[in-house]
Amino acid sequence: MNTLVVDIIRAIARPAISVIFAAVIAQCVVESITPPAWFLPLAIPTITWWFVERTITHIKAKREE
């Protein structure tokens, strides 16, 4: 049960945070805004980590089939 709750929270938070980070990055690029110094070092690894984790999970699931 506990892992189910964590999985649900992760499934909701991951796309929301990724979309927010991506939208802010896109807005900075389109409007030539310089983001705060802390933003890109936080956003890029976060988005990358989540996509890499998802890719690895899919690869493991395919191998188990």
What does this structure look like?
With 65 residues, this protein is an all-alpha fold. The chain has one domain. The protein is 85% helix and 0% strand. It contains two helices and no strands. The protein has helices spanning 2-30, 39-64. Helix 1 crosses helix 2 (39-64). The two termini are 25 Å apart.
Question: What is the gist of this entry?
Answer:
With 65 residues, the protein is an all-alpha fold.
Any descriptors?
65 residues, mainly alpha, elongated
How are the SSEs placed, and which strands pair?
Layout: H1 2-30, H2 39-64
Strand count, sense and barrel status of the largest sheet are:
none
Order of helices and strands: HH
Give the terminus-to-terminus CA distance. 25 Å
Broad structural category? mainly alpha
Give the % helix. over 70%
Quaternary structure type: single chain
What Rg, in angstroms, do the CA atoms define? Answer: 15 Å
Number of strands: 0
- Please tally the helical runs, counting DSSP H or I stretches of 4 or more residues: 2
Strand content: under 5%
